[in-house]
Amino acid sequence: MNATTEPSDLLQIANDKLIINALPNIVITILYLFLGIIGNTAIIYVYAFATKSNINNKYFILVLAIVDIIACVINCVFTIVLDFMQLTFTNAGFCKLLRVLCHVTALMSAFILLVIAIQRYLLVCRPLGRQMTPCLRKFFVVLSVIFSSILGFPAVIFYGIADVTHLGMNGTACKYIDKSVGSPELKIYNTIFMLTCIVGIIAVCVLYFKVVRRIHQQRDKFSKGRKSSKNEKDESTDFSTNDSEMQSESRLVDIINKENPEGSVKRKTFYNPFARFSSRSNKISHTEGTMLTNNEMPSETGLESNSSRSLDRNVKRKLSITATAKQRVRSKSKKIKESLKYHRFSLMFITITAVCFASYIPLRSLELMEVQDKDFKEKTFGNFLPLYRFLYTSYILNNIANPFIYGLFDKEFRKRLCWK
Fold first, then answer.
1. What pTM value is reported for the model?
2. pLDDT tens column, 16-45
3. What is the Cα–Cα distance from 244 to 124, expressed in whole angstroms?
4. What's the CA gap between 333 and 228, in Å, rounded?
5. Across 37-41, 233-237, 249-253, which has the greatest mean pLDDT?
6. What InterPro entries does the database record attribute to this sequence (predicted)?
7. How would you classify residue 307: left for phi > 0, otherwise alpha for psi between -120 and 50, otherwise beta?
8. Alpha-carbon dihedral sign for residues 12, 16, 17, 21
9. How many CA atoms lie within 13 A of 309 on its CB side?
């Protein structure tokens, strides 16, 4: 082995040891990649082809799924490349390109979530006001791409091939270049970046705070409405009768001639449905009819006619009251179900936004530390580099968590996904 190749071989050996050390992170990243592709593809299939969900709900779901697939592939592939070339990364152009794409896709996902927060606010808090039209939705998507590109493109200036040292071996890696570390330009960029994130987080929190407050108000209102609907339904059943009772009441008074066993006096027995009336329950109680003699008995024709008309009016009145009450109950129930569906989607997007913010906290914290000290990783983590790599790539969870969140909140998504 000659002197010119020996340093290179030693560097490769050191790099191979780092690869072995990074194997847990590589396996996890590959798992992220498969989950992200399969999960977000399932989202696109279900919401684009298998469901009839409102376009207001599924439009940004599809956009977010497409962005998540792109971001998942780029970030996972780039992470695996970095793990395999921790000391031997030499292609500056490839490094800059991937860093810019990682920043742009991450920012675009965050901007889409901000737009979704605005949409949920309009739908829940101002349902009768102006809503997002198809053109306005597309405009916001384009605007998200533009803002993400503006904020992400400066990464091409600050990232590149930097010299690194590991156990006395000098190598190169894709990270902040040496002249950028601690520079005023990088500090200004990070300040603008962080301020944008803070403003976005505050805006999302304010919007969703109003959404959640409105949801609680409507749930209280619906809870009272359900009790009212139940009372109306109970009252309607007091005015209604079952089939056998209705048939009994709708029949004419049955006048039956019966002869006295002694044969002297004829008695006419008729069934009087109004013999007893319970004023407490407003229900007609069927009891045994009264017995009237010929002298007490009104004319058969008049009795039949009056009783028939009275029963018809009574039955029609009951049916009308029952139908009206049931219609009100069905109408209120339908409104409650539709409103609760909107609320489930709002809570679903709130959860997605919270997961997004939480997943980026470790990455931004590590990057802020590395900006101040290029040897921060080695000094802080030492032999715990796999932990560093895991925290550094935790932001990828944002691109793979959404399918699980949709499955948790959207019953139709679960149903279609399980082929039921």
1. 0.69
2. 888 998 898 999 999 999 999 999 998 898
3. 47
4. 11
5. 37-41
6. GPCR_Rhodpsn, GPCR_Rhodpsn_7TM
7. alpha
8. positive
9. 5
